[in-house]
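Sanity check. The docking grid for 4'-deoxy-4'-aminopyridoxal-5'-phosphate depends on where the pocket ends up, so I'm generating a full predicted complex first rather than guessing from homology. Inputs follow.
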Amino acid sequence: MHEPAVKKTLYWCEHCNIPLIGRTCSCGNEAKTIPLLQPYDLRPALSADRDHIIQLLTSQYGDVPVPKVILLNKTGGYDRAELIIMNGQRFGWFTFDPVTKTYSLDITPEALPFLVPHITKGIIDLTTHIDLKAEKGRIGGKRFPLKEPIPDGSVIVTANGKFGTAIVKEGFIKVRELLPITPSTYPDPDWEEVIAHNTYHLKNLERSAVRTIKSHMKDRPTVNVSFSGGKDSTAVLHLARKAGVEKAFFIDTGLEFPETIRFIEEQGVEIIRKGGDFWQAVEKAGPPGKDNRWCCKLLKLHPLKIYLADTGPCVTIQGNRWYESWNRAGLDETSQNPANPLQLNISPIRSWRACEVFLYLWWRKIPINPLYDQGIERIGCYLCPAMLESEYDVIRKTHPDFTQRWDAFLQRWAEKKQMPDAYADWGLWRWRALPPKMRELCRNMGVLVNDDFTLAPTKERKKKQQTQPVSPIRQEKAEISPDQADIFQTIRHDYPILGDVIYLDNAATSCSPEPVIEAMVEYEHRYRSNVGRGVHRFTRIATQRYWHAHEKVAEFIGAHHGITVFTKNTTEAINMVAHGLSWNPGDRIVTTILEHHSNLLPWRALTSQGVHIEIIGILPDYSLDMNAFRKALEKPVKLVAVTHVSNVLGVITPVHEIAALCREKGALLLIDGAQAVPHMPVCLADIECDFYCFSGHKLGGPTGTGVLWMKEPVLIPLIKGGGMVESVTGDSITYAPGYEQYEGGTPNIAGGIGLGVAVDYLRKIGMDRIYEHEKELTTYLIEGLQNIDRVRIYAPGDPETRIGVVSFTVDGMHPHEVAERLDEHDILVRSGTHCCQPLMHALNLPDGTVRVSIAQYNTKTEIDLFLATLQEIVSGISHRNPIRS
Ligand code: PMP
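Predicted complex below; grid placement will be based on this.
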């Protein structure tokens, strides 16, 4: 269908003094046309705009009458710039200066017949203010020096019975044109009369929009309305309901005005609760921009994806219009949502201008969002970059709590990036690359812009009050009450890295919270030195903190006795045990099929010394075959090496029972706690093993950190050298008594100190609480996976015997392909054999699995998004490569 062209003019009945949608007025007269300006989106001046215009007119020209019907045509400028249309004339310009935060009104000569009879000030008699004697010919278009100074701005001028407009600047006056004026009077209709004269056209608009909706309602199995709380979607909601559409949804970004939420509730529209956390994401991504709308993806598209995963393919009626912006001007009746294949968008009012939308709403007496009357014109998030600075300035007055928070962030960000004051003060944060108008403003004001049109950094900034959001975990003295349900939301502020991704690869390595990073940086900046050597102040601080980190870690794992040694990782810890014990041919080691290569290969290496290894299998529910275990321990066993939790299946092994068996049979017990310590309370005082190994980097500590705890210092130190001895004589060595003997050479000092902070951090949240949170998410995840076609899950059914490590496969897709596709959607998971090839062979999964692994900072929304995305990926392949037809 050929779409009608964008309307570039306004029809006006001069007889009734009324704007018209169509060319003819109900009075029978033919309308005149008034040319408009791009993007031609005409709208009524609502009460706040009207008050503004009246106030400016009164202060400039005295008490002049203003008609009830005023129209505004927004156009380009530094900020708000509107053509004012009154009495069928292009009356003047209404502009906002983002630098001074003031409005100005500049009238056109067409306004003079209407103004001149009433003005009491702001009129300059040129015959007295400039020297006209020397002037021959026309005055219009010329610039004259003023005899006496007049404040800069636009003025009305008169000379010899003629009138015109002029601009005063720095002691000069530039006259536009002087013309004879015939004072005019006009009828003063109100909006009711405008509606009455346009009812015929409004009916047509309504009929055609309803027809459009009806013609597409069945294009997909379901139909709904996307509601934003603004006027356009209010009109569309009403039209869609007329057409028989029942469902409507609104996505709450978490940055909504309370008035909008209340309004939406009153409309009986379903509210999709907040998806992503803007305040967390912005710490990494920085302010969103008109040319960098990352926020839409996080706050709108992600929740929409979750919603649509439930709804399935649908037709969504939306209120987008051609006139809203240049890039909407080509919008078709139907359009596929480029971000979501499930959604077909219908735009039934795309050809309406804002004026028609308001007239329609007023005609049908449909309530509109009360924010419009407060002077807020663009309903959306209160810090939307698409907003003008003038609108934001209104919000500063109407909703100061919101703007204070955002302004504080902008100041902090500007400081960090060394942005000039203009960045926050003039609203230049709204663009990554400044558009021509803003570059012009910067040039005029002496603000430097880079060649790529980004704002140039500066060292000269006014220091401003700044506040940084921190989670309660970071506030030293803060008590975290057990009922603080949203603690897992607030801690996300401590992980800026999570801002733009969904990180579900925590079993490989988890993210460090800011305090860990800060502690490491503090070491480097403030007291970097060696430990356990010398007496100077730096080494004393470093030694104390490094030692204290060991104490904190020991306490964290409930090790009231024994030695806690810092290692590089779990792998090193296990190797230290394998190499630190003495082995004889015929010694037996019992281990399990669940083990990570790190808890298998060190033992396998001992077979060259005649050591035998026995591997215990698992049952169909993925639990360890304890009968086989018991049986294996009937013969003498030197060491049992078992994982506390499988890094593939998430299954928790019965370590207490195994420990009891080992004690009974006199076997040493090594537990690989790499997947347990970060996710559940571990108390070594209760387990009674001989060695317990885990990684620091999987619990938010630095990479290159791990722990070997041992009940007794029975191992021969693997690394010999500096820092691990008490005394060395010609023929004897006395090793240091504590952990030092196992940490020969200079250790990873910053890492060790960071690890101490990481366990402090987890302890403050509470391992019980983390375990419960992750358990809930895991159950939710598994239930969600069960609903996706062609997905096979490898996880124990009983929530009590598993943690948040969930493996799955998708029939017909390689695990790496699934992970890669998820990565395209910013979801990071692990794929492959997870360093557990014997287990993979046992499960007959030579390509491995996709593994989702959860940490304390993951949220239910992230799981929803993961599930929705996986669903999309899976149905995508069924389309391309149908497995079941
Ligand atoms: N054991 C288990 C159960 C693991 O999950 C891992 C890491 N995936 C390791 C050992 C090895 O840890 P690291 O790489 O830190 O040595």
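Relevant for the grid: The pocket of 4'-deoxy-4'-aminopyridoxal-5'-phosphate is lined by residues 507-508, 569-571, 596, 598-599, 643, 647, 672, 674-675, 695, 706, 835 (CB under 6 Å).
Also worth noting: The mean pLDDT is 92.
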